[in-house]
TrEMBL record:
Name used for this protein in its record: Transport permease protein
PANTHER family on file: NODULATION PROTEIN J
Keyword Cell wall biogenesis/degradation: no
Cited InterPro entries: ABC2_TM, ABC2_TM_bact-type, ABC_2_transport, Nod_factor_ABC_transporter
Protein's GO biological process: response to antibiotic
Amino acid sequence: MTTATRTVEADERLRRVLGEDTRPEQRPGALSTSLALGWRALVKIKRSPGQMFNATITPVMFMLIFTYLFGGAISGSSREYLQFLLPGVLVQGVLFISTQTGVALTTDLQQGIFDRFKSLPIWRPSPLTGALIGDVVRYMISSVVVVAVGLALGFRPDGGPLGVIGGVLLAVLFGFCVSWIWTFLGLVLRTPQAVSGLGMMLLSLLTFASNIFAEPTTMPGWLKAFVDINPIGYVVTASRSLMNGDGTSDVGPALISCAVLLIVFVPLSLLRYNKSE
């Protein structure tokens, strides 16, 4: 038997084993890989329930403290102040949770998990988008808890269920957009401690220097000027209008703020991620 004959027979056996019509499986798409990694983010929450505990307890604690400690002094009654406060606390709670995006990202970077993701035949940004999808679920859970506790305390939204749903969805959308800021900072700072410390400092400044707890009309001129351009204020005002049944005229500026954050920080995050090793 010649070498050529043995080669042909070997090729025939190989084709029979593999199958002549066998083709490689189609590469998973962007949506499927993002959803799969989003599920990974949710599983991480299940294994670390403390994350969800902080996400729900912190905004409820703020709502209770400000309602019953300052509500009477600010609005004359705690119940009336709760009508004003709850939409703002809803947004604040989502924003504080959003810092966890950058913290989780830097933790994975330190452990080398993202290096493994980059070696897989998947859509390259899916580890980022998947983590953000998981965060959206946390925002929704936190928002539902805040609204439920508020209703138990006496919150009565004039906008009805649709107004409440609209206010919650707007807060969740804003949290998703802000998460891209922490994604970018996580890729730049590279340590969970740095992202967490910077995030809490910035959000404490921006949330307290806003219209979450008081109307800007009572503030000094220099502070009111800052509050008027604070994007958090646009979202709080829009959520408050939706829940209180005051119409949708304030939604436009809030959506513009969300769009600006995405336009700026999504390209920056993807560029930084693609350059990172």
